Amino acid sequence: MPRTDLRLLTIESFRGSIAEFSIRFSDDADLTVIYGENGSGKTTICDAIEFLGAGKIGSLEDRGLGGQLSRYWPSIGKLASDVKITLETSTDTLRGRLQNGVATVEPEAARPRVAVLRRPQILRLIDAQPHKKYEEISRFVDVGKIEAAESGIQGLVDELEAKLNSGVLVTVTNEEQIARFWEAAGSPGTDAISWAVTALEQPDADALVVVDKLTHAEEALGVLSGYQPRLTAAHETQAAAEAALADARAIEAAVDVGAMGEPETLGILEAAESYLADTEHDATTCPLCRSSEKAAGLLGAVRDRLRSMHELQAASRRTAETSRRVQDAQAGISAIGEQYERDRLILIAAVSKYAELDPLSPTLPTPPIDAAEVGTWWEQTKTIRGEWTAARVRMVNKTQFAETLRATVDAYRVGLGEQKQLSSVLPALRATLSIVREERQRYTDEVLTAISRRVDELYEVVHPGEGGAGLSMGLTPSRRASLDLGSSFGGQGRVPPTAYFSQSHLDTLGICVFLALLERDGPGETILVLDDVLASLDEPHVERLVRMIASIAAQFRHCLVTTHYRPWRERMRWGLLGDGRTELFELRRWSLAGGMQLTRTIPEIERLRADLADTSPDLQAIVSRAGVILEAILEHLTLTYECPLPRKRGVSPYTIGDLLSGVSGRLRSDLRVETRNDNAGTVTYVSTSLTPLLDELQDIAGVRNAMGAHFTELSFELLDDDATRFGQRVLELAELVVDPQAGWPSISTSGSYWATKGDTRRMHPFQRPG
């Protein structure tokens, strides 16, 4: 991703930003330092950048505020919908809002990568449990794919080992079962396995066929046994039908057959009965002869004749019905006989087939031709039937044993084969697993060693000559996702730093670890934020830490540091920490009415230049400011060259006179500055001696005390030109010694001169002449 510079950050209704607040970043700045007293709003700026990049506010975490931290993101008295955070870059304008408790950024694709370091995180990097330390560095030790491969191989090894162990157990169990069969058989042969193989090779394949044929014969025999009761029942049915037929014929014979007459007579009589029974006709006259003497008793005679004819019809029907029953019974007996004959032949055939396969089987008597004799015959077969049953059980047991033995031997052979295969595959898999594990460990060790080495380099910058951190990182052997930190202390290696290091050293170590990790994680895409992490360091260490941060800031997309450490602000104001890519902002005191307020810091040298350029200059301000700047330059020179200064009682600082006297003799005459010029790619240096300026300033240094420090009557006698000349000469000296971008010459790597970053200034000599 190409580098995109930050241009403008605007915060509204968010945390401490009650009113709209903006910071405009310099185009050429890699490092932005924001100074402010506690409670001025520094953390709000860090929170806003973290809101855009990570959708959270880490400063509120671990404060016991519960799970819904987003309700504390709006400023006091503001709604979530009022929150607005805008970041303009050289390529995009990002707009952050708070919607339904979630931080949203548009466009989402342009959401920046942000890494924020606060003091609680420093403690997590150094003081946390080993698994928590590993969580902090896990994304920098990218062994995900190799760990997946290792886990896959390990899982396969575990699976195959379990399968091998299970297979061994099954094989041993089958072998023991075969041994028991062998012992039950009398332990023939040399061993159980050989006996089992031989036993299975013997021709027992017909045993199941014999059992099948015997079973069919037994079933046919059972069918024949049922004919005796069936035939008895059929004969009983026939006898009952014949008795009923005799009764019907006797009844029919007792009826007056002569009364029957012709079939037409029945119809005539039924019609006459109907006519005579009708009350409308004349009952006193015969309907045929019309005589009165024949009419009496005519209806009764018709009815008697009809009754006799009906009784005869009923008797005839009973006779016919019982006759059919007799015929049906006879037919049933015949059918039973025919079916018996068929089943008798089936039995004879089944017995014959069984006898062919088992010639030694007992002979079954031939079934009788007459089914009526089956009962007697069945009693005669009782003994043979028992022998058949015993023979079948023996053969079934034999076949079942053979199948059991065969299954046991087959399982034994399969298990033995799998054991051999697994025994040959597992060593290769274990060797592969060892290679993968060693490769992961080697890679991890290389990464952790590189990180440790870089931490030591950064730590040494802040604590030069103090023994170094001697940091070593390593994964706990028994727990892969567990990180141990070790350090050297007092000649002892691999001791926990938390046990021996001071708090300031631990803080420095944590910062160095954090920076070393981020340098491996795409720093060019990352906005680095250090939120007031310098609390426990003393002044010399802070200065070196700040220089170290400034030296690596260019690696990142941008680096933003907040601090309430006043010496840092003062050194930046004087340009003592300048490297050409650093800018300083100051926050004023926060108020509930106005919220956060920003003021840009102007270096004192620039203020002096502005004072001198004023058409109505404030001479006292010029002299006072010039005196402070001159003191700073002289202090830098006397410290750099270790100049002897008079001992002073109390805590009063050295005066300008003391400092000027310290820069004396051969040192003053040899002091010169080379200023770099770049013209069309050609680098040249212009050398300027500092001696004339120092001599002149020593002559007019009294102006500072007379006009810029104390009230004296002498100030009324001095000319305005004396004040402006003093200020002008101090400005000339400052312009020679201090590069407005690269700062003061304090780098000693050349061994021949002191230089600024980029060699924009070279100050000679390198050491004070003897």
Q: What's the short version?
A:
Helices cover 54% and strands 13% of the residues. It is of the alpha+beta class and 770 residues long.
Number of helices: 22
Return residue spans where pLDDT drops below 50 for at least 5 consecutive residues.
710-718
- The first-to-last residue Cα distance is 54 Å
- The class by helix and strand makeup works out as alpha+beta
Give the mean pLDDT: 80
- Principal-axes geometry comes out as elongated
What's the main sheet like? 6 strands, mixed
Strand segment tally? 18
Proportion in β-strands: 5-15%
Spatial order of the strands in the main sheet?
Answer: 7-11-12-3-13-14
Radius of gyration, taken over Cα atoms and rounded to an integer in Å: 61 Å
Q: How much helix is in the residues?
A: 40-55%
Structural descriptors:
elongated, single chain, 770 residues, 18 strands
What features would you describe in this structure?
- This protein is of the alpha+beta class.
- Helix content is 54%, strand content 13%.
- The chain has 22 helices and 18 strands.
- It is elongated.
